[in-house]
Write a structure and sequence with these properties.
Helix content is 71%, strand content 0%. The longest helix is centred in the middle third of the chain and has 33 residues. It is globular and about 55 Å long. By secondary structure, it is an all-alpha fold.
């Protein structure tokens, strides 16, 4: 009797499922970046209801969706065995930021927000790097080269630097450093990183850079381009937030509905993901608007920031495909992407 395949093929076929994933990622990424520019209000104006709803999904809902991992027994066991990273550190971030939110006055707290945003946008680019690496492996082009990885990270760091040089793009006011004179330097470094990344990709043999890999790699490399093109915070930043969050939700939906389980367990898993993401997302969204209140409200706002940072910490471990458990878990759920 033939051995059972531990990683069964997708019902649609591996190639079709893989191409659907790629098209979905490209559509969500490029659609968010271009769409945000198209509907962005002028600088100083508020976002419309449609853009606000997409930002809610791309920010609070996507952060909340990571709590779904706690519903999976094998993931809970993995996290329990690494209590420091997956329990102690997240709780410390939430509690610590709640205390800082209550005690630090609003204006000095802006400096903490700069550090938070630097971490957040670096987290965005690490996800882009992971997606580009996943595409390269899924389409049989091997691992990303060191230079290709370095170029994506450098583009993300220079894009983040551009944002920090222009805090108005982050809608920050108060005692922030005046670094506007360095913005052209950040733009030049971004251009150099993109050019270097393109050169690194072209150094591959033609068979090792199929258009699917080149397109997603290019999207990761140029992800921060709106930062250097637009003065409106929504045109420059909203698309980054939406693209990152929607990328993540697509991956979470595929993982929750993937694997060899029966249709009903998959349906239940997806229903859990949807409910967790929406309900906790609403709580996070409410807390995210309390930065102008008194100490109690600002404490909740600090806890919100801590929860987002906890999401950064947890995700950095659970999606690290170099490690045995995350790779095995995702290979079982997404066999058409991980061979």
């Amino acid at each position: 009797m033939a051995a059972l395949d531990p990683y069964p093929a997708h019902p649609l076929g591996r190639s079709t499922a893989r191409d659907a994933w790629l098209c979905g990622m490209l559509l969500l990424t490029l659609g968010s970046l271009v769409g945000a520019v198209a509907v962005a209000p002028a600088a100083g104006s508020r976002a419309g209801a449609g853009l606000g709803a997409l930002l809610f999904v791309g920010s609070s809902v996507h952060v909340a969706s990571s709590a779904w991992f706690c519903t999976v027994p094998e993931v809970r066991r993995f996290m329990a065995a690494r209590c420091g990273r997956y329990v102690v550190a997240p709780l410390a971030l939430v509690v610590g930021m709640a205390v800082l939110g209550a005690l630090v006055p609003a204006k000095p707290f802006t400096l903490l927000l700069l550090a938070f945003f630097a971490w957040q946008f670096f987290h965005f680019q690490k996800q882009n790097l992971g997606l580009a690496a996943l595409a390269s492996a899924a389409y049989g082009a091997g691992s990303l080269r060191r230079g290709e990885r370095a170029a994506i990270i450098a583009a993300g760091l220079s894009g983040t630097a551009g944002l920090l040089c222009r805090p108005a793009l982050l809608q920050l006011s108060g005692p922030v450093p005046h670094l506007g004179g360095l913005f052209p330097v950040a733009a030049a470094l971004f251009a150099l990183a993109v050019g270097f990344g393109a050169t690194q990709l072209l150094r591959r043999p033609g068979a090792e850079r199929p258009w699917q890999v080149a397109t997603l790699y290019g999207a990761a490399l140029g992800f921060f381009l709106p930062v250097f093109l637009f003065d409106s915070p929504y045109a420059a930043v909203a698309g980054l937030t939406m693209a990152h969050g929607l990328q993540y939700l697509l991956m979470m939906g595929m993982v929750a509905g993937g694997g060899a389980g029966a249709r009903m367990p998959r349906f239940i898993s997806l229903a859990l993901l949807l409910n967790i993401a929406l309900l906790l997302g609403l709580v996070l969204n409410l807390a995210s608007h309390l930065h102008d209140g008194g100490p109690a409200e600002r404490s909740l706002y600090g806890a919100y920031l801590g929860a987002v940072m906890a999401h950064f910490v947890v995700d950095a471990g659970l999606w690290r495909l170099r490690d045995e458990f995350p790779r095995g878990f995702l290979r079982e759920r997404l066999p058409y992407l991980l061979r």
